[in-house]
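Form 12-C: Joint structure prediction
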Amino acid sequence: MIEMEQALAAIYQRTEPRQAERLPLSQAVGRVLAEDILSDIDSPPYDKALIDGYAVLATDLRGGRGNFMVIDEVRAGDIPCEPLQSGMATRVMAGASVPRGADTVVPADRARMDDADGLPLVHLEEPQVRPGQHILPRGASLHRGQTVLAQGHRLAAIEIGILAEVGRLEVLVHPQPRLSVLAVGDQLVSAADYPGVGQSRNSTGPMLGALIQAAGGQAVDRGIALDTEPELTRQINQGFQEDALILCGSVTSDATDRVPRVLRDLGVERVFQGVRVSPGRTFWLGALGHARGRRFVFGVPDNPVSALVCFHLFVRPAITALAGYPVDEPARIQAQLADEYRQTGEHPSYHPVRLENQRGKTVVRLLDARGMPDLKTLASASGLAVFPAGQQDFAPGQTVSVMCF
Amino acid sequence: MIEMEQALAAIYQRTEPRQAERLPLSQAVGRVLAEDILSDIDSPPYDKALIDGYAVLATDLRGGRGNFMVIDEVRAGDIPCEPLQSGMATRVMAGASVPRGADTVVPADRARMDDADGLPLVHLEEPQVRPGQHILPRGASLHRGQTVLAQGHRLAAIEIGILAEVGRLEVLVHPQPRLSVLAVGDQLVSAADYPGVGQSRNSTGPMLGALIQAAGGQAVDRGIALDTEPELTRQINQGFQEDALILCGSVTSDATDRVPRVLRDLGVERVFQGVRVSPGRTFWLGALGHARGRRFVFGVPDNPVSALVCFHLFVRPAITALAGYPVDEPARIQAQLADEYRQTGEHPSYHPVRLENQRGKTVVRLLDARGMPDLKTLASASGLAVFPAGQQDFAPGQTVSVMCF
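Section 2 - Result
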């Protein structure tokens, strides 16, 4: 048995992002950049009017007012015809290019048209005029050659806009990690079968597949382990087509020792077995050098709570590392317990909880059905409360740390 | 112009979930159920031992102790051979079926084997024995015929496990809404082109596409509107292949009035134009009766902040309604401003903000680059702060409401 920190270090030490692939922007959202992105343009590409109004020279507004001859009208997309000189104004629309010579935009609602002798004149009043007002100068947002997004950055929606802005149709990103799930246990039948006496349907396998997808991976459900060694060997070998294989079930207490023997024969190195954390005392990690690169085997207990906790503590970090995310701690919040809890374990415990709103305050409700919440109860969980090792009675109102899903 | 609540009501009134489709479990995560799910089994299907130990009759432990003859050993998946009688014990493993007659499991660490004359005997000491301890009774989690998940429930990972447990391989869910995006603006060029003077690349369109995906929809990028009416008509008609079309850009101030004319000719009814909210004063909604069902047109401003805000205020609710989610308000938190803010508008304002941690407290940092944050600044936004209509100076430390992304 090792400490949780050692287990995570062993996982991170062995996981690295997969070889980058090139994707069109429309498929890249959620992925992690495998290259630095430089801007090929200044943005805005011109001095840009931020509002509808009149572009003028600030010094022409003596005492905050002045009369101007309107020489041009520029909309977004238009090219201003001529540079502006003192005493002149150009009508500009929001988003338009401000003509050379102008340094100020006076809002349209401060203008009064005053057409004299057929010449378009405008009277502007702007008591507190500032040079540069309502103008976003060329390159204020991006300048050519600048790194706008760095390798390792996760691409959310706004980043997709940035990539389009700097002319990228495709981008180099890390592929989604692929994980397969194989359920192990003589009592298991598939969802397609009706369980006989002593049997139960494989529900933890499909749940783990969905957790993999929600964590940004691709899941391959390899069903339930078959009971002869040649068939089991074939199933596990198939699992090595993916980056990692989750064996879910009581692998180590398997009466016939079939799974451990097959793994040994396939050359899987046991990195660690058992972590000082509850649940998770039976979680183990195996590794295999493989023609297509390193492969992992995670041994996850079969009961839904233990599987969920082990997934969040150990498998999720492996998926994010394979996906190219920088190592980071999951979000934790501090909140007050709604229930009492007796911590008796010699290991830190993770307990499924629901965050509830109680008179405007967030409280932590323990989920429990006779000491072992079932899937139906678990469905309302919003995170895992962490209780440190040792004998301790927690009272309602005491503050605990919650790792949020 | 209408109020924001009226705009949302108009959207919800016209959006309903699309016709349900049947999907395998592995593709159903994130979808919304279009049927009630009943259990076809009791779960657990038998009285289940929660720990390794000995199944006995509680009344046999007089004074908290007793000697028992061990008649059987049952593992998960095994069927107990015979019912238990007084004075007998069955060795059970965690997950195993507790034999008929037993009502209690005594943990293995409270047992001492005591084989006399070749007969397997066990001495058990459990001072505070309770009938039913360490046993999850048959049907405690699910009982046959019970509704385990109701129509309208969103399927997260744990729900996928529940569906497998009740024997579902496929499930009836609402399809993902499909939205197309067409950028409108004479100044726009595609990311593939280098922008000339007065031009800029279409970045808001791809950003909206990624926002649609992140909100659970499917996005179809239809590029930039072409400048003749027949071509524009063809592009907009193509957009009606999807459930909704987002026209992004200064449609209404279009000098040539081309887009409004094409929409009118196509029979698009203008539901509302302009909402009393900032930004969003130019947001509009159109509707069209169509051979494939009702279609929507959203008119979204082209600048990234306005587009982002309008998306979150109006388009996202439409996507969730089309996806079958029950109407619900986005999560809002209350937190203190880190900066001062002068609210001068006659409408409520939504301002992009970043939530920051300041000495263990969450504070609200306004994102601003000269009154109009660019995409690069926006990328760090975690939500929108809401400032009510009217003249008001907000000081640092004042509490504001933040709609979180």
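Section 3 - Comments
Chain B has four domains: 4-16+176-322, 21-43+141-173, 48-136, 332-404. The first strand of chain B starts at residue 21 and ends at 24.
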